[in-house]
Amino acid sequence: MAHLQKDRSLIAVLGDEDSVTGLLLAGIGHIDSKQKSNFLVVDSKTPLAKIEESFEEFTNRKDVAIILITQQVADEIRHILDDYDQAFPTILEIPSKDRPYDPSKDSVLKRVQRLFGEGA
């Protein structure tokens, strides 16, 4: 398992402008030599295909350890999140300024609850 995490040093983020900006100010921003960033600002004009494409890109990158995704954006790609079963990168749903965290929607939390027999 250690070899899987050896080169994973980045946190990627998908979310609203305020959430992404705050995380970038905290220092998670990175743009590689191919001009690929580890973040995507999602607003009402962002096409679903772009969100899905960015999520797939982040999950396939070997340098990303964690993907933070605001729950509002996660709801838009819930059909993909529910099928995601890899250990790395780990997906963590976070609240946004406009919407509080709802644990009943969190795919990872649901998986953990099923593992421990606590819920449907």
UniProtKB/TrEMBL annotation:
It comes from the Eukaryota. One of its GO terms (cellular component) is proton-transporting V-type ATPase, V1 domain. Keywords: Hydrogen ion transport, Ion transport, Membrane, Transport, Vacuole. Signal peptide: none annotated. Pfam families: ATP-synt_F. It is found in: Vacuole membrane. It is a peripheral membrane protein. One of its GO terms (molecular function) is proton-transporting ATPase activity, rotational mechanism. Belongs to the V-ATPase F subunit family. Subunit of the V1 complex of vacuolar(H+)-ATPase (V-ATPase), a multisubunit enzyme composed of a peripheral complex (V1) that hydrolyzes ATP and a membrane integral complex (V0) that translocates protons. V-ATPase is responsible for acidifying and maintaining the pH of intracellular compartments. V-ATPase is a heteromultimeric enzyme made up of two complexes: the ATP-hydrolytic V1 complex and the proton translocation V0 complex. V-ATPase is a heteromultimeric enzyme composed of a peripheral catalytic V1 complex (components A to H) attached to an integral membrane V0 proton pore complex (components: a, c, c', c'', d, e, f and VOA1). This is V-type proton ATPase subunit F. It comes from Spizellomyces punctatus (strain DAOM BR117).
